[in-house]
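TODO from last week: model Retinol dehydrogenase 12-like.
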Amino acid sequence: MSLWSLLSTPIWGPGSVLLILVLLLRLGVKIWHKIHLWDLQGCSAELTGKTAVVTGANGGIGKAVSQELACRGARVILACRSREHGQRALNEIQAASRSNRLLLGEVDLSSMASVRSFVRWLLRESPEIHLLVNNAAVCGFPTTLTPEGLDLTFATNYIGPFLLTNLLQGALQRAGSARVVNVSSFRQAHGYIDEDHLIGAGRPLTFNQNYDCSKLLLASFTRSLAQRLQGTGVTVNSVEPGVVYTGIMKHFSWSYRFLFWLLSFFFKDSKQGAIPVLYLCLAKELDGISGKYFSSSCVITLPPKAARDPHVAQSLWNTTARLTNLDKVA
Ligand SMILES: NC(=O)c1ccc[n+]([C@@H]2O[C@H](COP(=O)([O-])OP(=O)(O)OC[C@H]3O[C@@H](n4cnc5c(N)ncnc54)[C@H](OP(=O)(O)O)[C@@H]3O)[C@@H](O)[C@H]2O)c1
């Protein structure tokens, strides 16, 4: 069959119209993202002499954030759970940024023992930290207990960052001026706060609601910590990156992953998803701004009501401090 007769078959009529429509839609989405994303290239922030720690830096948003920070001269500590994956990411970031100021640290955020051992190593390597990006997270796990008796999703997405940040408070304050950036999710609006979830108990959670709830706890933590750090030179904010095509769905069933892949055509890529996070890391106008939640368009937005309740926040802080033995030295 000649090419001409193939193109003349009836399927090409509606088929090509559909293809053109999809391409136009894709172009529209790209333009929309471009208009709504912060102008990273226009930001002149330079980070020579600064140390940044990024968790979950071996892939997705964390890797893109780490690369940009390295390009701007920061010494970047890639805090990864797998040495092998972390080393691969480090090599790639090194090649892309031409930075020789990258360091790999091993940490499993779902394990309090691992967080403590990572902090001991980190403080020896770097007594001052100017930027901490709590980026690592998991989703798609049913209630699963870790060997330390915590729920895996809450341990990774909330308890790990809580412990890590608190143990690094001294290093952040020694830096004189430092930022903590918590990577949150719009899914926090679908969560609620039940402290028993931290240990795999409490009100039953529907499909993937543990992810939503864990992000809500992170929003409450962001506000509490910001209050506690007032006047120290350390600011704490959280940000929602938008819907980004990364490995975040890797623990879901193949059908969800397939759907995510199909729709990925309209999602942001990792570099675009990193931009709101980088805004919180770099933007000069955020000096002194703390305790806020930023949308993926980099606009200050109110977090859900439960995350703004001071009594809930106090109780949650006390419970998490007890669970993590926070008063125990690193
Ligand atoms: N993608 C989105 O649409 C979206 C939307 C809203 C919010 N977010 C948030 O954006 C952040 C980055 O996610 P992403 O989309 O870039 O997903 P990702 O590609 O899956 O990256 C997640 C990172 O977290 C690491 N991680 C998971 N469990 C860990 C543990 N126990 N200890 C240490 N590291 C661990 C992963 O390491 P391994 O490779 O070893 O698993 C990976 O490097 C997350 O906080 C996520 O909730 C993403």
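Done. The chain has a mean pLDDT of 93.
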